[in-house]
Amino acid sequence: MAETLDQKQNFLKGIIKENPVFVMLLGMCPTLGVTSSAFNGLGMGVATLFVLLMSNIVVSLIKSQVPSKVRIPAFIVIIASFVTVVEMVLEAYIPFLYEQLGIFIPLIVVNCLILGRAEAFASKNNLTSSVVDALGMGMGFVIALTALGATREILGNGSIFEFRFVSEDANTFILFILPPGAFIALAYLAIAFNRLTRKLA
Amino acid sequence: MKKKESTLINMVVVLFVTTLVAGLTLGYVNDLTLEPKARARLAKKANALKTVLPAFDNDPVPAVIRVKSGSSRDSIEIYPAFRGNGFAGAAVTGASEKGYSGLVKLMVGFLPDGTINNIEVLEQKETPGLGTKMKGEKFLRQFRGKDPSSFNLKVEKDGGGVDALAGATISTRAFSEATQQAYDIFITHRDSINEQDN
How far is A195 from chain B (nearest CA, A)? Predict the structure, then answer.
């Protein structure tokens, strides 16, 4: 297979042109669910990045061995295994983060971003391109979740990364910590992001 | 390399091998992390005990007493603390299923006379930024030094003395209920713990 992909473009597309959250609107469940603080968004982003990277590697390595009719179940088993590994390792070695992300870690399995990249990219491209694709897409996801989490934490709690800049009694927009605030903040961030990238392009 | 045909044999073999490898990997990682996981839990418990109990010089973890309570699914744990030869107090776990997202589990430290020394949240899944503030100093402060026999462990809205978290009355109710449960257990078993020592 002739590989003519420019790897720099391949990496950047995940962050800007095809940003999974702001442009492709993939993986909305964890995006809206965990981003009530900047730290949670970052933690979820990094965990997803890891799973995405590992699943892209494995899928691109075994792609020729998997009959196309059973590729989806095979991919899901691979992804679910990596998610479970992440969950066990976090619980054992970073119990603090495990407590914070708790119920959202198993949900990485159903993040359509990961299955989407396995299906649309890793099963058609070689190992190097798949790794670069996973890193780009994963970074795009990390950046988006951290930005969304930071926005909601600043507006809703008056702090960023747990560092408070208003007093504990101050009235903040609690709405932004609650689920409706996730939708509102995401919409405005997506608008701003698309405006900005269009202007730059 | 050519893609494998979707024949029955191929599909069965590929799925079988995939699940087998996945299963073995998970089993191996599970074995590997079993001990650190247990250690992390134990460290958390020891830390919580140190936070909620007054100064003590015994090891409360092996001295744990487990009692069954009708209102709770798990058995309730009582960790007695001694200093010198005297009874210094006890830490009791309390739980409530009435949180905004289910279980709220606390560890409450009592002085021998029933006064609350300190409280630590062991488990909760409340709304981040609202219910999770139950772990905050500002909320916990109001319980310290209070004796539940005279301090009504109910949210102010329900006629008690607990100042509820803004926007998280349900979480506060669960917290208060768990504290009350721990107190009831402590009072019931206080004398038997005390005798054990002497």
Answer: 30
